[in-house]
Every structure is written in C-alpha cells, then in structure tokens.
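User: My advisor, Dr. K., asked me to get a structural model of this assembly before our group meeting. I'm new to this, so sorry if the format is off. These are the inputs:
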Amino acid sequence: MPAYKAPLRDMRFLLNEVFDYPAHYASIPNGKDADPETVSAILDECAKYCEEVLSPINLSGDVEGCKFENGKVTTPAGFKDAYDQFVAGGWQGLSHPTEYGGQGMPMSMGLFKTEMVGTANWSFAMYPGLSLGAMNTIMQHASEALKNTYMPPLTEGRWSGTMCLTEPHCGTDLGQVKTKAEDNGDGTYSVTGTKIFISAGEHDLAENIVHIVLARLPGAPAGTRGISLFIIPKHLPAADGSVGPFNNVVCSSIEHKMGIKASATCVINFEGAKAWLIAEPNKGLEAMFTFMNTARIGTAIQGICHAELSYQGALRYAKDRRSMRAVSGKKEPDKVADALIHHADVRRMLLTQRAIAEGGRAMIYHCAQFADHMVNGILENDPAKYKKWDDKLGFYTPILKGFLTELGLEAANQGVQVFGGHGYIKEHGMEQIARDARIATIYEGTTGIQALDLLGRKVLIMTRGGAVREFTTLVGKFAVDNMRNPKMRSFATTLAKYAAEWNLLTMRIMLMARKDRDVVSAACNHFLMYSGYVMMAYFWALQASVASEKLAKGGSESEEFYKAKIATARFYFDHLLPRAKGHATSMVKPSKSIMKMPIESFVFE
Amino acid sequence: MPAYKAPLRDMRFLLNEVFDYPAHYASIPNGKDADPETVSAILDECAKYCEEVLSPINLSGDVEGCKFENGKVTTPAGFKDAYDQFVAGGWQGLSHPTEYGGQGMPMSMGLFKTEMVGTANWSFAMYPGLSLGAMNTIMQHASEALKNTYMPPLTEGRWSGTMCLTEPHCGTDLGQVKTKAEDNGDGTYSVTGTKIFISAGEHDLAENIVHIVLARLPGAPAGTRGISLFIIPKHLPAADGSVGPFNNVVCSSIEHKMGIKASATCVINFEGAKAWLIAEPNKGLEAMFTFMNTARIGTAIQGICHAELSYQGALRYAKDRRSMRAVSGKKEPDKVADALIHHADVRRMLLTQRAIAEGGRAMIYHCAQFADHMVNGILENDPAKYKKWDDKLGFYTPILKGFLTELGLEAANQGVQVFGGHGYIKEHGMEQIARDARIATIYEGTTGIQALDLLGRKVLIMTRGGAVREFTTLVGKFAVDNMRNPKMRSFATTLAKYAAEWNLLTMRIMLMARKDRDVVSAACNHFLMYSGYVMMAYFWALQASVASEKLAKGGSESEEFYKAKIATARFYFDHLLPRAKGHATSMVKPSKSIMKMPIESFVFE
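Assistant: The format is fine. Below is the predicted structure of the whole assembly, which you can bring to the meeting.
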C-alpha cells in the first residue's frame, strides 16, 4: 500500500489562493475561530495523524478484514488504537457545536479532514463517517432531550452511529421498507425488522452504537409517505450518560465484500428494540434526506481519495521501475532502461490520475463553502437560509457524487495499470485501492440515481434548466475575463463553447422529454458525465488562471507548483474534456435506441 | 456466480450466417472434418461441459483459491475432476494435429472452445490455455525429437505447459532477462534463475509440467538479441513416455492476487534444471513471439468472456429485482415496483454489456479465419503463407487484445453496478467477474504495449497507414453496398464518415510524428481505442445487415433474435461509438500536453 502523504500544498492553494477561505471564514458566524493559523495547524495535525496512524494499517486492515463471532465484530489490528487516538484528538466533533463538546469549526473543515482520513484509510473513515450521518440527523431533527442525551457521546466519539435504511428487498426504493414500529404509549416505540448493508453497524471501537432507523408506524400510508425515523441505541443510555442495558439490537452477520474489508458491513436485526421517534411521524424520508447533500459530498470525496492515493503509489513506481526506452530516444542512457515516467503513455495515465484528484478536490472545495452556509442555516434555526444554500448545493451534489466516484474508480484502475502485473497482486496495495473504490459509485445513491436526480429533478423539474444557466453564467464570466490573457485564451474559448453547448443540450432534452418521458432516464447518465467533465474543466481553468497570475508576478517559491498546475490543466483540456463530445452526441439520441427492444428479446439462446 | 449458458444461437449466427464458416472450413486443408454437423456437435458438447462442470466451480474456486505448501500447489475442490473430464473429452488437443493425438480441427474451433471454457470459469481456462502456448511454441520451433517427446502428452493434457518470461525486475522489457543457461556439452543445457508470474507454473492437475523458458547463453549479446528459448520439464521424461526424475524446477511461492484466484500464479526457480534449446540460439524472443498473435487473441477473448458472463448475471437480476417506477409510468402496476429492466438507465448498462460481448465476439470470429490460415502455414511448412496471414492478423491483434479487454472490464463493472450493493458482496459472483477481468488489460502485453504495437509498429512503421487503408476499404465497400438500403443507410453513412476520418487521423499523426517522435506514444492509447470503436461499429453494422436481410425474407423462427441484433447495433452506434469522437480530438493534440511537465514537478507537496 502506498504510504500516504497529505497534499497540503495543494489544499492550501485551494484554501488561500483559489477560493479565499480566510475571507469566507471571517464572514460566517462559526468561522471566527477558523483563522488562517488555526486552520493551518489543524490541517498539519490531521495530516500527521493520517500519515502516521491510519496509512500504515490500510493494507493490513484489508488482509485481516473484520471478524464476526457470536454477534460481535472485531476490527483489524490497530483499528481500535487508531480510533482511540481519533477520539482523543477531538476529530469526530471538529465541525460540531461546542455545546455538545465539539470544536465548533465550520462544516468545510470537516470535509477537508474527511479527505485526509479517507485517503489514508477509507475503511477506517467509514466508522466516524457514519457517525457524522447520525449526528447530523439528530442535530437537525431530534428533540432537545434526545440531542442532550446522544450528541455529547457521539461528538466525542465515545459512541458511534449508523444509518439503517436498506432492507433485503429494497435499497434505492425505500418506499418498500417493512421494518415495523409500535407505539409503547410512553413516548417510546418498539421496532422490529431486519436491515442490511449497515456500515459500522457493529464493531469494537466505541462503547455504544446509535442507529438511525427507517420504519413504519401501524396504519402508515404505503410507500414513501408512510416511513418514520427512529433513534435506536444498541445499549439504552443510563441516566448518568453511561451505557445501560442491551436493547435487542443484534448483528447477525457481516458481508464478505469486494473491498473496504476493514469496514464492517452488517445485517442488523431489531428485535423489539426500544426506539424514539425523531422528526414527525411518516416524514422520516424527508428528514433522512435533509443532510443528503452533505453526505453525498462526503462520498464524492471518496472519488478523490482513491485517485490521490493511487496516483501517489503509481508515481513512485513510475519513477523507480525501469522498462524499455522512450520512443523519442534514451532518457537515461547509463541505466539498463528508462524509468516508466519517461513513456508518454504512462504519463498519460499519471496525469489522468492527477487531473482527477486535483480537479475533483477543487470542485469539493468550491462546494464546501455552500455546505458551511447550509449548516449554519440549521444551527441558526434559519430555514430560509438553510433552504437557499441546500438548493444551491443540490445542483452540485449529484455531479460531484456521480462523476467524481466514477472517475475515482477509473483513476484507481489506472494506478493498477501503471504497476503492470505487480498492480494485480496484493502486496503493493494498488489492487486494494481499485476494490475499495468500487463501492463509491453504488452506495449513498448509485450513479444512475445521481444522474436522474441531476437531470430529472434538479435541472428539469426544479429549475427548468436554470441550474445549468446559473453555473454556466459563472463559467461565461470567467471566459470573458480571461479571453484577453494570451496564457488563458485557449482555456477560455473552449470553456465558452462548452458552456453554450451545455445550455443548448439542456434545452433540447427538455423539449424531447415533453414528448417522450423515457428521454430523461435514457439521457441522464450522459448528461451527468457531460456536466462533470465541463464543470471540472471550469475548475481546472480557474486553477490555471490563479497559477498564471502568480507566475506573472514572479518571485514565488512555488514556481514549479504553479507551472505544474497549468500543465495539468492543459492535459485535462486536451485528454479528458474531449470525452464530453461523445456524451453530448449520445444524450440527444432518441430514447428508442435504448427502450425499443422488447423484454422478450433479452434472453440467452 | 451467474450460471453460464453458452450463447450457441449467437455463435451459430456468426458461424453460419455472418462469416460462412462452412465454406471457409471446406476451403482449408484441415477443415475437411469440420463439416457443419461435426462443428455443431462439438459446440453443443463443449457448451454442456462448460455449463455443467466448469460453471458450478467458478465461485467456489475463487473463495477457496489455490493452496501452497512445501512447493506443492493444490487447486480448489472440483478442479482436478473437471480437468480430468477435460482431458477425457479430448478438449486440449481439439485443434492440434492428429499425429500427436489431437483431433485435427482448425485453430478457430479452439478459439470458440476457449470462449466457452473461459466464460464458464476463467481461472480454470488458464491451465489448458498456458499449455496451448507451450504446445504451439514447441510445434513451430522444436526439433522432431522434442516434438515427439512432448507433443503427445501435452496434446492429451496428461502433461501441461507454461510460458516463463517475466522476472522480478522485468516483464514487458524482456531484454533485461537474467536467467542463465549453460551448455552441458551433450545437447542439453543447465538453466538457473527465477521467473515470476508463471501461470499454471505448479499445480495438481497434470502428471508433469513443461516450461518454455527464456534464458541467456554465456556470452550472449546484451538486450533482446541475446535471449534463447528452452524447454524445461519439471520431471524429466522417461524413455517409455512416463514421468522420470525431478528436474530441479521448484515452485517457491504463489501470488495473492486481486482475482483469478483459482489459477496458480507461481514463482518458479530453475536450480540448474536440465534444458533443451528450441529455435536458434539468441533468437528466443522471435520464436516466443511467433505465436504471439494467436495468444493475444486468446486473451482478447477474455474480454468477451467477462462481458458475457456479467451480462447474463445482470440480466437475470434486472428482470427479477423490483425498484421504483419507470420514469414514463408504471410498467407492472400490480407489483410493488417495476423490475429494474424497465428503467432506461439500467437498460443502457445491460445493452452496453451485450454490445460489447456480441460485438467483440464478431470481431474474434472474423479474425479466427485468419488464424486458421496462419496455423496451416505452419503445419504445411509454408513460411510465406504463414507470414501473409500472420501479418494480416497482426493489425487486428492489438486492437482486439487492447480494446476488448478494456471494454470487458467496463462491462464487468457495469454488471456490478446493475446489482447495486448486492454487486459488491461475494455471494452473487458479480464482483468476482470484475476482479477476474482486471488482469486482462495487463498480461500478454498491457494495453499501452498493444497501443504502441498498433500505432507505432503495425500502422506507421510496417505499413505506413496501409493497414488502416486496407481495413477501411472493407468498411467503405460495405457502406456503399448498404447505402441504398433504407434499413441500413444510417449505419452505412456513419461508418463511411468514420472510415474517412480514421485514415485522415492516421495521416495527421504520421506527419506529426515526423517532427516529434513522442507523438506516437502520446497518441497511441487514443488511437487504439478509436480504432476499436470504429472496428466494432463495422462488425455491428455487418451483423445488422445480415439480420435485416433475414427479416426481409420473412418466415424465420428467429425474428426476435434478428430484431434484437438490429436494436443492439442501433444502441452501439448511438451510445458507444460516439466515444470515438473524444479519442479523435485527443489523439492529435501536441505531445507537449503530456510531455512538457518536468519530472521534478511530479511530486507530492
């Protein structure tokens, strides 16, 4: 497994030079303490923890995996100790309110932390990651009493949390949930049912596990409108805040998965477990989905995590391993052969990984500011503010989650490819990254669901193309501003063309969809990928323009860094962005090329 | 793991309706016995064996894996029995000469068999597959005495074979081989060295293992011109044809791999093992590479194997699993939700898999006829004939191997995606297909090597664009022939445009490469993928045209089959072929967008 080195220079470039986080933090209520020195110190400290504690147990965690015996899950060697250090460092509550024991930093700091923790060891990151989901749901929807009971130990990390949605017969289609809740008449409920694919559902890291569970009340309407949300602790909380009696929450098995093997994926049986309702009855799905946008950005980060780690591994190998001579002549004549990095096709793979990792990171950092505002809407009890920023984030979310996880998987596979046969064997860890990356396009809403959410909901229904117009206005303005700069002209021209085309395609699909509703589902994957490529192009051009300004000023210590930014942007525009052309062509094809074939023709003969 | 059902209808469509194999077999010397009835009976028998014997041990083989203890490898439960049946059925020698005990069928029959065996169980297919490599090398290059010793037990399958090329420090770059051969002065040699990644290097299936080994003679020139080829049996053959004394060929470990876990990948130490030279001294690499084109087509087949198997699994699941309602309205109103197959985006994934499997199969069947002629050139001792057909095959080989294995991996990943979270866990076998598929773009020459071979060697150096002109002439003729047919016009027009563009792009790259040799390596991956998409388009249009003719005639029992062919062709043209546009744009970008960045800028900060 490649040793992880946190890309702090790149993170600081985005924070301070591209997106001006110091000004952003100064402008938000909970950003006062996030002054540049504090932010910098937190990033350094987090990097150190990730590099020294989490990275070394990434490969061993995969090899050992989680063990299940008599309802208990044992995490791999080193995980408990690493988690204790995580708790001691206060990392779980970094972005949560001080009243519950958190550090009160803005939400974005939590996302930057997630990237480092997740790159060093994604399996580990799943445990605190699921806790965040539970904490956010409780924070927004639970009563004060429940918050006071559960938020402090969850914020500390002494307890951990889960999200229990999926059942054996349904994952995406939660309207089919069958788990039952009965009213005990004392303000509590009894919940019975089986949930599957519960990440961090059972483990040995925390004292108690707090499940957020979707279930049906008696007589609830069928489908999505009859689902309520409950909080169900594995052990009932004692009055003094310690862990009380067992609450009939049983882990009956763990899954054997392709990857993220150190993350326990559990079948959880609720056997008449005592539960508390959060949010209104039958409005559980809405409540569950309020934090969906941030949760999905958390998963989008997984794309860049795997791209970054695989790039780091592939780059070291490409400098070290010697094979053949470069097509343009010997580069290292005194050596038995040239290092892989001298071969253009290997560089193409390395630059693809780099462009995905750094381009994706810029997309995340852009959206993290919206997440800060959105979360502050919740903390300030200002629903209008919450909605405004949640809506804004809502356009980016499916693009980031859908596109970045697909590209993260590609980048991870390129890393295997750079290693050749050695990439396929376990010892270098490159194949593990590809296996770990494979889940990201599936959970937290598959790529297909993201694509439908983007095109169907966010673009067509909610904004009638307005979301695309708003983003492309930003792109258009950038293009105009940069058109006269000879260093930026080619980027600006290309961007302006794509911005116009994106709107045109949106309009064409809107018109097509009026006559043929299948068009939306038939076109959505191409629309998602197209949107991703064009959006990432903007963020690459933006980075190139900042780098170009800095170089023009001269005298920087980071000249090589800035030049590399511009070169990677050039690579992106020449070698990845053109893929958008294929998607542009395909998305406006009639839906019948997908829907015409009768189901009877889908057979093996 | 999806139960495998051999796609016999599709295979017969290609054999009898698209490529006229009956006429082809009637025209070649060793095709006399391959009359339609015999061919049909062989395919049925092979399908039965694959479905009933090999498919059921595919998942269990992955879970159990190979075991290594004290130099011995134990294959998973059922493998030895399946191999015994393989031997008893005469499958190893299906396409090898009757004088050695084979069935004397044309080479192409062996390729069709490989597809079925490999789809049912790719790990199993590796054992007889490597034997074929050894047999072919011996048949073409060894002395009569060696042939008489080794060919009969290898053809029977009582012994198996390997190809020992890779060493710890070199795989692609075989000029770095260090294994040493010393002349014993009695017509034999002593070989010492370590080979890695030796598939089927040690196992419990056969009585003896015959290694074909690259090594250096004393004083041999450095690099690729100083490598010789040896035959080294694990046990020396006794005079009566049985297994004699151990020959100091030691398996010191097996690799822990991402996939194909039931295939033993061995480290083999030759510790002064007795060896016989085959082919001329220092011409080992040339000899090793003579059968390279057929070996690479064998690996290209792996792409369609995984696409087919993953499609079969995903299709069954998509018909069975219910989730949400189709965007265009309820399709199964009496059910709790619509089956996945009613969702356009799921169909897009299924059709992608199908288009890859069936399109790739057509490409293989087209080339298999060239392989027949080429092999007959060897059997007839007619070097000119051999060279003519080997050259012809040489243009297709890198496209088939490079492109089909990349798309096979994509198709396998789509199958995981159709299953959602269930695709990521082991029990359904979908993730195994994705892991098994991952090696195919790496071994037998990585995609990068195929791309360089195609653009650099086959297109630019050997034929100065002639290979592309020859193929596109075929495409152009097809387009002209079909332009007046209203059912085919749209396919024909699109094909004609791509054929013209392909030549134009080739010429542009040729001109660019004159001034900048890095262009070849910078452009080759895009050129390979572009070539693959356009070539597959031709074979889809060809299938559509045959299907369209049959439908026009009317009265066929296979109307649904033909309609599905046309619909899948339409899908391919609308949703996969447009990807070629991105590659067309990128391949003619200046090489500096890849090569400009100094190595010093490839750092983590």
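One thing worth pointing out at the meeting: Chain A is about 55% helix and 10% strand.

User: Perfect, thanks a lot.
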